[in-house]
Every structure is written in structure tokens, then in C-alpha cells.
Amino acid sequence: MPTEVWERVIDLCRTNWRLDGTRSTHPQVETQLRTDGTYETWQMCALVCKSWLPRSRYNLFAEVCISRPEQIDQLLRTLENHPTLAEHVVRLTITLPPDATTGYIPFNRAPLSQILSNCRTLDLRGVDWRHYHPRWHCLHSVPHFSWAHVVELFLPIDYLTPGGAARLIWSHPALAYLTLFHGLDYYGKLRASSIPSIHPSYQTLASRRERPRDACRNLSEVHIVTRSAVSTTISFPLQHLLGHTVTRLTLAMSRSSIDSPDLWNYIACLEQLEILSVSISASEYDPYSAFEDTLPTLMAHVKSGTTLRTLVVRHYSSS
To answer: What is the top-level taxon of the source organism (predicted)?
Structure first.
């Protein structure tokens, strides 16, 4: 058979490839990808013949998953010895296995973002900010910490200050898709969660931080996901942090966590909003009670004259 056909077969070894050639990025599928022997399959494909090597290598390095601190050094050494492999990396994922002895992974090592110049997705759901220095962004050269090419960011906000979130998000000038996680770890399990109540004066100070001119300029989709057991609200200055360019906003939150003044104010400033999707956890015995107060408040904050054309409202079991 032609090499092109075999390349298609090699691609379909990935469990989150559908038959139509599109990819599913559901967290559970991603977790399955790392446990079903897919990488071993590609390693064997790479040994079949020279014509299979390029496509096998592409799939092996398309998504790099870091779960231990020493793997950062291993990755840098590998890319230093084989520079062409860096071209294949399109997604960098930081995760922690359940038996991890340390929660610190130096994902902001100086040359990494420059070496992985084709990386388009940065998944930090495995990062536990409690294990990082309060000024972690200053421990390495700040000019090196700029993922100018990343368009998709998965960011946990538990134990992350507004200033830290701003520095992370604004270091991705090409960012188009942002997902904020509260109370969930990489595997979708409940994370020890805390977004401490922030003093109003600190909120004001955070909102006065000058936002770079190119920050969030291309941001079109924002997804905010919290665990149903989380009751604290998100007290981030979202309007100043993310700007006003979002056209699609997805909220998957508990009834109490969605009642956030910062969230309402952010929705009110989105003049270009086209799609609003809201999922609220509710009791299976009285699922519609979650919308009695929330839905009217939500619609009251949707800016008059906005381009909103699609509203999706769902509820899911809080058990």
C-alpha cells in the first residue's frame, strides 16, 4: 500500500483521533491516551521501516506530557541532541500522578518556550500552585517566559493570585482559547481548592496593573469550569484580565460559585458575545431550582444590543 495510507493508519493509533480525522480533547480521553500503550505502538511503528519513521516520530512528539521535575531536563537534553524533534511538539501538558512526591515542575525553564516554537497548546492542569514560590515568575529570566505562539491555555486558578494569573495569561499574546479550572485536577478529580477572599484594595491594585497592548487581543473563547462541591466564588478582575473580545463563553459551575460579582461584571462588558453556554450543578430531585435566581440575574447582565445569538442552559447532578 502507498505510504500515505500507512501514515493514516499510524495516526489512528491515537485513541482521541476520530475516524473523520478530528480530535477529541475530553480529559478522560486524554488520560486514556497515556495508559493504553499508544506510545509503545508508535515506537514499534518507527522501527518497521524508514518510510514509517517520520509519521511515527511526529505522533510520538506531538504531545509531550511532563509528570516529574527531572523530565524537564530530560526533554531539554533530548531536544538539544535532536533539534528537529522540537518541530513536532504542538502540545505541552503538565500533570501529576496520584503518587507524586512533589508538586513542583519547572515548566517555565528559560529556553523551553523558545525551543518549542511550534507548541500551540499549553495544559497546566497538573500544576499545584501551593508548591511554587509566590514570585515563581521571577526565579527565571522573565523575557524567556513568553509563549508567543501558544493559542490554547488550560489554567488551574486554585491558590493563584490575580497578579500571577495576569502574568501567565498575558505572556501568551496569540491566545485565542482559555479554560480556567477551579477545584479540579488534571484527571477531573476534586482538588484541594481555595481561592482566598481578596481584600477590595488588592482587587483594585490588581485591576490597575497595566495590561500589555497585545494581551488577549485575539481571545475568542473562555471556559470556566468548577467542581460542583466548590462553593467559593471566583474573585478575579476578569474584565481587566481578559478584555472584551470574547465571542463564546462557557460556564460549568455550582449554583453558589456562579454568583460572583466579578463574573457578572465580566459578562456585562462582552459586547461581541455570540454564544453563551451555562451548566449549573443541581439536585436531581429539584434540578430547575438552580435557575430560579441565577438565570434572571445572568440575562440581566448580558449587555443590551449584544450580538448574542445562542444561549445554551443545562443542569447536571451535584452528586
So the answer is: Eukaryota
pLDDT tens-place string over residues 143-184: 445 678 899 999 988 878 777 888 888 888 899 999 998 775
Q: Are strands 248-253 and 221-226 parallel, antiparallel or unpaired?
A: parallel
The whole-angstrom distance between residue 19's C-alpha and the CA centroid of its chain comes to 25
The CA-based dihedral angle spanning residues 208, 211, 213, 214, taken in that order and rounded to the nearest 10 degrees: -160
Domain count within the chain: 2
**Sole residue written with cell 513536532:** 88
Domain residues for the domain of 67 are 63-317
Closest CA to 155 of 116, 123, 121, 128: 123
Q: Are residues 110 and 46 in the same domain?
A: no
Set of cell numbers at residue 144 = 524567556
Same domain, 88 and 135: yes
Span between the terminal Cα atoms of the chain, in Å = 52
- Beta-bridge partner residues of 63: 91
Q: What's the whole-model pTM score?
A: 0.78
